[in-house]
Amino acid sequence: MNQSMTSELLHTRDAIGLPEDPEATVDAWSSREDSYPIIVTRSLSDAVDRIADMIGDASVALLSDERVYELHGRRLLDELGAAGLRPTVFTIATGEANKSLDEAVRAWNWLADTPLGRRDVIVNVGGGVVIDLGGWVASGYMRGMQYLNVPTTLVGQVDAGIGGKLAVNHPRAKNLIGGFHQPLGVVSHVGFLGTLEPRAINAGMAETIKKALIASPDYWAFIEHNADRLLGRDEHAMCHLVGAAGAIKAELIARDPYEADSRRTLGFGHALAHPVETVTGFGPILHGEAVAFGMGIEARMALARGLLDRATFDRILALLSRFALPTRASELQAHVDGRDLLAATEKVRLARGGFLRWVLPLDIGETVIADDVTDRELRAALNDAGITF
Ligand SMILES: NC(=O)c1ccc[n+]([C@@H]2O[C@H](COP(=O)([O-])OP(=O)(O)OC[C@H]3O[C@@H](n4cnc5c(N)ncnc54)[C@H](O)[C@@H]3O)[C@@H](O)[C@H]2O)c1
Ligand SMILES: [Zn+2]
Questions:
Q1: Cα distances (Å, whole numbers) of residue 241 to 161, 223, 296, 300
Q2: Which numbered atom of ligand 1 lies nearest the CA of 156?
């Protein structure tokens, strides 16, 4: 194809030939290679510059939750204004219960009343809820608007902001309605983490411990050695924590960006975390807490199978406890009924074609994925963690 552009005209001359056989199978390309920057910074003005660079002269909508908007969104809006951007603002109520199709529809209705189009950008300012919802809204509007993540929780900065996996919850199951749509970029300002409650920081630590355990003994050692500094929110340590998480997640997802292969170690802890969140009604137990509990259960399964030695098992549970993460039923913030949990887990199994894939740790940085875990093994591990039936 030949194309030439003048100031007003795009002139195209093409000469696509006809197929010899009209019934011959045609291969249509369905994937493209793309990358986006993950930026970690300790300076708000640096964050604003990076955001403004990525947006260029597109129009902007800032999507946030009410709490984050009050704490950081308003200030960010002012700073973006000073950088020449004029975002319009859409907020949702805070909390996991708002990661819903109803809120997505509300956002689409709102967008339809704005002049924003495909080339414009939604800037998601918030935690995983805002990021998952905002990305899903962007992906569904005009066949895919651009969006940029500005995560303000540790879960958002070390995990949810990266990877383009988007979803809203359905009463039947967590993340049931969603898809993939990659962001324009991720800008994590670690200063935002300063206003998080300790419980939210710890929930984020669960996703970092997950990455360390499945893929990086170095990251594990960093977390172990710097636990005090991390608990004290030392900004240098937080910056290292977030930067390394981005690098590790980027490396892992590059191997399979659209989850064509369901045997992914990044799901460690999640086979049980999602049912725990579902049976407790999305909210009382934070996602990261549910993941920690799920990792503990998979570690128990591995121990029972003789795949994991007792010392490493103890080390895993000790690091989770160091960040006050639940590994026993009594440490969860809501009662979890064993029978409800098994029923919800069974639903996920059926929805996945009859297989649940459990990630069993063998050592720090080493796992196996097992789809042959029996009901009896699951019950035993749950029992061991204090879940009753
Ligand atoms: N897409 C992915 O790959 C991925 C990965 C991990 C988690 N997730 C999803 O992310 C969600 C959990 O994310 P989350 O833990 O960030 O939850 P969240 O977005 O609900 O944020 C937790 C709470 O912190 C508040 N908050 C946010 N930033 C704050 C700040 N800087 N200071 C004070 N308060 C602040 C929020 O208003 C909210 O009340 C779950 O729905 C989970 O499924 C998605
Ligand atoms: Zn998660």
A1: 15, 8, 22, 27
A2: 16
- Whose Cα sits closest to atom 19 in ligand 1? 127
The residue contributing the CA closest to ligand 1 atom 6 is: 160
pTM: 0.93
Q: Among the atoms of ligand 1, which is closest to the Cα of residue 282? A: 41
pLDDT tens digit string along 234-285?
Answer: 999 999 999 999 999 999 999 888 888 767 899 999 999 999 999 999 889 9
Q: What is the H or E stretch that residue 328 is in?
A: none
**In the chain, how many H helices and how many E strands?**
15, 12
Q: Which residues line ligand 1 (CB under 6 A)?
A: 65, 67-68, 71-72, 94-96, 99, 126-130, 132, 152-153, 155-156, 159-160, 163, 165, 192, 195-196, 200, 203, 286-288
- Grade residue 6 by pLDDT with cuts at 50, 70 and 90: low
* Rounded distance from Cα 287 to ligand 2 centre (Å): 6
What is the C-alpha to C-alpha distance for residues 164 and 218, in angstroms, rounded to an integer?
Answer: 26
Q: What is the DSSP string of 195-219?
A: GS-HHHHHHHHHHHHHHHHHH-HHH
